[in-house]
Amino acid sequence: MIILQDSREQKPWKFEQETRVVTLPTGDYSALGLEDDFVIERKGLGDMVRSATIDRERFRKELRRMSEFRWRMVVIDASIYQLRTHRYYSGQQPNTVLRNIANDSLFFQVPFIWSGGRKHSAPLVLMYFQEAFAVKMLTSMG
């Protein structure tokens, strides 16, 4: 499997698999053979807080583009505990952030996955890509 990483990604995950830096039309990651099916947007905690509040309109445009893919998700390099205990530099309240995430997730049908921390994100994403390949193979067979 070859991971595709968007050229604009500023804090890339480190995968054990080959990774190619390309320009993706939306999102930060996909995999070769899944680029028309699966897109992942990576967010650090502070970036997620901004995207769910101050930059929400811009982020909702991204979610709208993502919703056109068969599989899509936002992976947050943090735990929900870190959000709830306000471990970020912003005056935004955790409940406001969570409410907006829930609303956007339901409206655009894009899951938001809390990885528990940056070191857990790449293995989690790799597992999703592997399962997507398996599902794509099974559904193409008939």
Structure, described:
This protein is α/β, with parallel strands linked by helices and 142 residues long. The protein has one domain (3-136): Rossmann fold (3-Layer(aba) Sandwich). 44% of the residues lie in helices and 18% in strands. It is built from 5 helices and 6 strands; from the N terminus they run ββββααβααβα. It is globular and about 50 Å long.
What's the short story on this structure?
The protein has 142 residues and is an alpha/beta fold. The chain has helices spanning 45-52, 56-66, 80-84, 94-108, 118-141, and strands at residues 3-6, 19-22, 29-31, 38-43, 71-76, 112-114.
The class by helix and strand makeup works out as alpha/beta
Average pLDDT across residues?
Answer: 96
Number of helices: 5
Low-confidence stretches: none
Q: Roughly how many Å apart are the termini?
A: 23 Å
CATH class: Alpha Beta
The helix/strand order is EEEEHHEHHEH
- The proportion of residues forming helix, as a percent range, comes to 40-55%
Query: Could you give the count of β-strands?
Result: 6
CATH topology name: Rossmann fold
Widest sheet, order of strands: 2-1-3
CATH A-level architecture: 3-Layer(aba) Sandwich
Provide the domain count.
1
Radius of gyration based on Cα positions: 15 Å
Largest sheet: 3 strands, mixed
- Overall, the morphology is globular
Quaternary arrangement of the chains shown? single chain
Instruction: Quote the beta fraction.
Output: 15-25%
